[in-house]
Write a structure and sequence with these properties.
Layout: H1 18-30, E1 38-43, H2 47-57, E2 63-67, E3 82-83, H3 87-91, H4 95-112, E4 118-126, H5 132-148, E5 160-162, H6 164-170, E6 181-189, H7 192-205, E7 209-212, E8 214-222, E9 225-233, E10 239-249, H8 255-260, E11 270-281, E12 290-294, E13 299-305, E14 308-312, E15 316-317, H9 329-340, E16 354-363, E17 377-383, E18 386-391, H10 397-410, H11 432-437, H12 439-446, H13 450-460, H14 464-473, E19 480-481, E20 484-488, H15 489-498, H16 504-511, H17 514-517, H18 526-537, H19 541-561, H20 567-574
Parallel strand pairs: 1-2, 1-10, 2-7, 4-12, 10-18
Antiparallel strand pairs: 3-6, 4-6, 5-6, 8-9, 9-10, 11-14, 11-15, 11-16, 12-13, 13-14, 17-18, 19-20
This protein binds flavin-adenine dinucleotide (FAD).
Amino acid sequence: MSNIAGGSQVNSAGALSPESRAASIEALKATAEAGKELDILIVGGGVVGAGAALDAVTRGLTVGIVEARDWSSGTSSRSSKLIHGGLRYLEMLDFALVQEALQERGLLIQTIAPHLVRPVPFLYPLTRRFVERPYVGAGIMLYDTLGLTSGHSRGVPMHRHLTKRGTLRAAPSLKDDAFVGSIRYYDAQVDDARLVVNVVRTAAHYGAHAANRLRVVDFLREGERVVGAKLENQEDGEVFEVRAKQVVNATGVWTDETQAMVTDRGQLKVRASKGIHLVVPRDRFQSTVGLILRTEKSVLFVIPWGRHWIIGTTDTDWTLDKAHPAASSKDIDYVLEHVNRVLKRPLTREDVEGVYAGLRPLLAGDNDSTAKLSREHVVAHPVPGLVVVAGGKYTTYRVMAKDAVDEATRAMDERVPPSCTDTIPLLGAEGFKAAWNRRARSAEEAGVHVARVEHLLNRYGSMTAEVLDLIARQPELAEPLPGADDYLAAEVVYATTHEGARHVHDVLTRRTRISIEAWDRGVSAVPVVAKLMGEILGWSDTQRESEIKHYLARVEAERLSQEQPDDESADAARMGVDDIMPLR
Ligand SMILES: Cc1cc2nc3c(=O)[nH]c(=O)nc-3n(C[C@H](O)[C@H](O)[C@H](O)COP(=O)(O)OP(=O)(O)OC[C@H]3O[C@@H](n4cnc5c(N)ncnc54)[C@H](O)[C@@H]3O)c2cc1C
């Protein structure tokens, strides 16, 4: 094994391999026997469900977590990818929410996931002389201070006021008349899909039974009480039962549907609000910092993302297909129009490499404007045996998870220890700094460029050693993927053997971000990805062809939907291709 972790052997336990999925399914089935029930079954493999699994298992409970599609395939791979308090919530005077989120930001950067969550600088351009600077300055000062007073260090540098010249130096592509000065402040960012898989892996490492592509189709009842769930394996169609003392429903925008399987009493109502993002190459404009821009309804972020920018977002009600929210031409124009207000050289459709859309799970309120609904979460216990957690935001997933598990354990007979996830680093966090410091030597030993090792370290932390190990054994895996030079063939193998990827779109969309970062959206990479995955998963030629065909159809449907004028026509175009169903 390569010595990237500074001497220690990296523990590969917690690998989400095809074998571990099969073993988890067997363990879940075994709970149907009398006396073998789980303490907690978590439904939903987004960030909240994953967090709840880790929270529960590290309290010493027996835990299962099931996800209907792929880990993080819902909202948790489609966010702005910011770990932030949310400056605009300050304006809504929601200090408690901001402080809680900033505390989580500090924990994630410093303890839980330093390999995945990192500080990112933003400029807040000021457009009016005199009044605006003191007003915004006071807000950002409070933001920085709330981060400090939360009992942890902020983990990011303090803000700074910039003159007009200073602003132009930081962001030379800003239009001269778009600002009179600015304030630079720091927040943090994460690859949202990657963090979720990492949390699930860490939960599995501590003993949780984790399996994706298992859909809850019903809940088991004894009288009023929920005592488990009926699951359908989406890979082979098998239906089986899992029993648990408590079931935690963490299904985000699907909460209404999953809750309705049990009760129509005391329901949490969750509303879906669509937000879209554009991905453009980093060289389309010059700036060393991200931007936060005010819009009529909310804010627009321009976020540095490796060799790209992510620009978004929008905020509109969505009542159509929740599995594949579609960005329409109108959404794309909205984002382009707003960002172009501040850029010297306007961006056009030709500059857009990728587009993605996600649905915010908002607690339904009376307020008509989704942008004004609070992002706070709610935990409910509508019937004995079932806890529902919904709302919130990515940044505060750990708190949501803790609150949900607290609620579930309150109903248990035995005393359960309190949450300890604030002290638990995710897999790959331990040894990350040492591995980063010796990256040049690791690169030399592995025979790859140091930039490659840096890229891997930022994705796998100290588990990078496991990826480099694959290359040491099979040097051809050091080849970059066609049309997606940032990613190596070894990462496809690792995604399949360690990160639970089961289909080509899991790898192209979530384990890597090729579907939004590559000009061809992964079209030239897909045959190689299918070949590498097929060898591990034992696909026949027909299965491999079907995976490729399905992915290409999906890319086409997404492109077509993005040319449609509105939500309805975009949804109809995207609906042309459903989730892949394996050959049975
Ligand atoms: C455009 C946009 C930008 C955002 N930006 C940010 C940001 O920058 N920072 C931030 O903090 N937050 C942000 N958020 C909010 C954040 O992304 C969400 O709050 C969070 O990801 C929700 O996670 P979740 O686990 O509740 O839901 P999800 O990630 O949707 O997970 C729910 C899971 O349940 C599964 N499921 C559904 N039904 C079943 C069933 N019957 N059986 C089994 N599984 C089932 C689904 O497949 C899904 O994977 C943003 C949201 C959007 C839409």
